[in-house]
Structures are given as C-alpha cells and as structure tokens.
Design a protein that fits this description.
By secondary structure, the chain is an all-alpha fold. It has helices at about 5-30, 35-60, 70-85, 90-110, 120-135, 150-155, 165-180, 185-195, 195-200, 205-230, 240-250, 265-285, 295-320, and strands spanning about 140-145, 155-160, 160, 235. The strands form two sheets. It has a two-stranded antiparallel ribbon. The longest helix is centred in the C-terminal third of the chain and has 27 residues, at about 205-230.
Length: about 325
C-alpha cells in the first residue's frame, strides 16, 4: 500500500516555495526594476550572510537543539577577520571562520559532554562571544584592509554573481548532499526524531550533535567574514537578532522546532522569502505609501516565527489525534 505523504513535509516543501513565488510575482507586478539586475544581486549579496547562519541553524534544529549564539559569533568573526585582513584574504577568512569554529566546539562540548541544555549552553556562549567581540574591537568598529583584497569576499563579483552569494550557494549544495545522501544526514534526522532510540541503535548521537554545533559556529564565523568584507569593517555590535532571523527562516522552511523533520532547500527558500519581503517593504517606503523604520523588520520576523510555530503546533496535534 502506498504510504500517505506527511502533511508537515508537504507544507514545508511546497508552502514556502509557493509563497516565495507569489511574493516575487507581486514585486514584479507592482514595482519598476524589482527584477532588475541591480536589485536582484543586491538582495542576494546582502542575504547571503543570513543564509549561511540559517544553514547551520537548520542542522542544529533538526537534531532537536537550538543555537542562540550565531549572531554574536558572526559579530566576533567579523572583528577577527577585520583584524587579520591586512595579512591577506585567506588569513582574514581563516581568522573569522576559525573563531566561529571555536565557539561551535565550545557549544558542542557543553551540550554533549556536560549535558547542558542547548538553550542555556548557547545563551552563555552568546553572551561570551558578544563581550569578546567588544573587547577585541575596543568597543568600536574595526576597519579592514583594502590593499590586501579582503573586501572582494563581500563586494566582489564572480561574473555577474556576488561572491557572497556564490559562497552561500556552495555551502547549501554541500549541506544538501550531506543531509540527503550520507549517513550523517540520516543520523541528524534520527536524533531529532528520537535521540534515545538512536543511541540504543548504536548511532553516534553525541558525535553528530557535536559536529552540528561546530558547523553552525563555523558558518556563523564565515557570515562574519562576509559582513566585515561587505561593509569594510568588523562590527562588534552587529548580529543582534540574527539568531531570530535564522530560526524564522528555518521554521518557515518547514523544519520542526522539535527536530526530526527538515530540509536544506526550503530553509534557503525561507531566507529568500524573508529577505525579499523586507525588500518589498523598502520599495513601498520609496513609493511613499507607507513609512516603516528598520525596527519593523524585527516585528515582522517575530510575527512570521509566531505564525509558523502555531501552524506547526496544530499540525502536530492533528497528527497525534489521527495516530
């Protein structure tokens, strides 16, 4: 007998994609140059940072965990990258990613070795990373070196495509391959579905969880590298609310906050949906019909997250009643 498709997966796969297509169609119909090359590439360039953070968050949430430190880690990574940028592109990138990996390793150790709840563990590292960024930067922005070519990582193009967007695309391709075609990906979903059962089956649950937190930290550090290169300075107070954007993108993309169900592709669609929504609001501001400050972005992110969590909760309740 053919197995009935899980409605949670169907909504996550098709709902966010249809919403994304509808939003793009609306923007194309309403605004001149909405699909112009400059606007499209600007959206891709800016949102690549959030895409990288959301990718790491996706894997963490699929295990049933959470990483609240990604925004502070990105800010810390941007400062480290800016300080190392005079030594070259690779050195600057390595500094940002390396410090992100260190935060991720710390998170993984706290969660898997000391059995601290992910919420508490990553909250602690969020505060530590934020303070470390301010200390390293002496409570001010740190200018990058323009002579070393470091800014090409954020401001350069590969043909017509922004370098940050290319980096994010490669990361998502790699993440999709891991999730869908490796035992590591299957273990990630198994842990989120039932960690104790996965452990009894002999799966290396602690090792995989450790790797997911480490990867999340590294991707946040890479986002910080792009942040510094794109804006020409390490930003110690940047990254506030990035964890909310990442969580919202992951959940809007259909990944359950309880773990066990998720998709890399729909996470990217969630990032683009939120990014283009803010772009639409900017166009509306330009037309003079509405006047919304940047602070409304946080309100919208929170509203998106709340609505999707409510929908997920209702789906889970119906599924439990039908079982």
């Amino acid at each position: 007998m053919k197995r009935k498709a899980d409605p949670r997966i169907l909504i996550g796969t098709y709902g966010v994609v249809l919403a994304l297509v509808a939003l793009i169609a609306f923007g194309w119909w309403r605004y001149e140059n909405f699909l112009g090359l400059f606007n499209v590439m600007s959206v891709l360039r800016y949102n690549s940072m959030f895409a990288l953070v959301a990718l790491g968050m996706c894997f963490v949430i699929m295990t049933g965990g959470i990483d609240l430190s990604v925004g502070s880690t990105a800010a810390l990574g941007s400062v480290a990258a800016a300080l190392a940028s005079p030594y070259g592109i690779l050195q600057g990138a390595a500094a940002g990613v390396g410090i992100g990996l260190l935060v991720g390793i710390l998170n993984g150790t706290l969660v898997t070795r000391l059995n601290i709840m992910p919420f508490i563990a990553t909250l602690a590292t969020m505060l530590a990373a934020s303070g470390s960024a301010l200390l390293m930067a002496n409570n001010q922005s740190v200018s990058v070196s323009y002579e070393s070519g470091f800014t090409n990582l954020g401001q350069g193009n590969l043909w017509i495509f922004p370098v940050p967007a290319v980096i994010a695309a490669v990361a998502y391709l790699f993440g999709s391959l891991i999730l869908n075609f490796t035992s590591t990906g299957r273990t990630v979903l198994a842990i989120g579905g039932n960690e104790e059962a996965s452990r009894l089956m002999g799966l290396r649950t602690d090792r995989i969880k450790f790797l997911t937190y480490t990867a999340s930290g590294g991707l946040a550090g890479l986002a910080g590298v792009i942040l510094a290169a794109q804006f020409g300075a390490g930003q110690p107070i940047e990254g506030v609310g990035w964890e909310l954007f990442a969580i919202a993108s992951v959940v809007v993309g259909g990944t359950l906050l309880t773990g066990g169900v998720g998709s890399v592709g729909t996470t990217l669609a969630g990032v683009l949906l939120l990014g283009i929504l803010f772009n639409v609001l900017n166009f509306e501001n330009g037309m003079g019909w509405i006047s919304l400050s940047a602070y409304w972005q946080s309100v919208i992110r929170g509203a998106f997250l709340l609505v999707v969590v409510i929908i997920q909760a209702r789906l889970m309740t119906r599924r439990s009643q039908a079982a």
